[in-house]
Amino acid sequence: MSDIAKLERDILAAVKAAKDEASLEAARVAALGKKGSISELLKTLGAMSAEERKAKGPAFNSLRDRVAGAIAARRAELADASLNSRLQSEKIDVTLPARPEPRGTVHPVSQVFDELTAIFADLGFAVAEGPDVEYDDYNFTKLNIPPDHAARQMHDTFYVSRQADGERHVLRTHTSPVQVRTMLKQKPPIRIIAPGRTYRVDSDATHSPMFHQFEGLVVDDATNLGHLKWTLEEFCKAFFEVDKVEMRARPSYFPFTEPSVEWDLRCDRSGGQIKFGTGNDWLELAGSGIVHPRVLAMCGIDPEKYQGYAFGGGIDRLAMLKYGIPDIRSFFESDLRWLRHYGFAALDIPTLDGGLSR
Length: 358
What we know:
- The structure is a single chain.
- With 358 residues, this protein is an alpha+beta fold.
- The protein has 2 domains: 2-90; 105-345, 2-Layer Sandwich (BirA Bifunctional Protein, domain 2), CATH 3.30.930.
- It has 11 helices and 13 strands.
- It has helices at 2-17, 21-32, 37-43, 50-90, 108-122, 136-139, 176-185, 225-239, 293-298, 315-323, 336-342, and strands at 105-106, 126-127, 133-135, 159-160, 169-171, 190-199, 210-220, 247-254, 257-268, 275-276, 281-291, 307-314, 344-345.
- Strand 9 and strand 10 form a beta hairpin.
- The radius of gyration is 35 Å and the shape is elongated.
């Protein structure tokens, strides 16, 4: 029994000397682990006679219980000491001046980017991206835009110097090249939204040489204009946060869609603000249409088997409409006073269930 008493003293001394959780765990393993000293003692019971087990079994088990209790008590002491240390280091001196509130804000365009992404993700669209400097072929030719089209002229498009291989590049005039890139590398079904920066030679209160667009593309074997109309209606209800909207279609022309449709949204302009879903006025919303069979064919998709619809609009314009911003040029002037007025709290991430523009 003297050996057991000595073993207990040694173990309890190691437990008491433990300065942190790691050293306490090492002491526990040394005593109660699979090959610990007490575990080895308990293993010897199997080779003893009944009389020996009757005498030594309770002593061994009692030793194990006392050591386990000492370890638990030491663990609680270490936890209390750690908590007190944290409380001392993290305490707040309430006599100090209050810290100023964070002043950083999210730009309205970034806010609308996030809102668009949240809405279209809920509708099953993936986000696709592409480069700002684009091939002339992707920006124009594969979108069925002829060589003599006005959009290709220098007064409307920013051209980049020809590359060493003779390729001609442009600053993309729309985000439609992202649709081309997607169709070239992905087979139907396709369901994407492509928001991003675009560039055109234009500048006034409602136009900027750099602006932001979003475009959507759906390609499968059964889609039609009814699906397109429903998608835009659901987007408008979610984005403008109204229960209902009314849209009207106008025939239009875009080289990359046939038929082509522009959509107007019913609104009320009285009272110095625009309200959607009511009133007797109409606001131009977006261009769209059924993807031209030639575009599908040039992108390696069989137009006899597949069809799709595409739509697009201006992100800056949507931000102006929703948040009452009168001049598009303000988006790019880096005026902190303007941003503090129109900006959004950095941590208020827009969600459909929590509200887009809290």
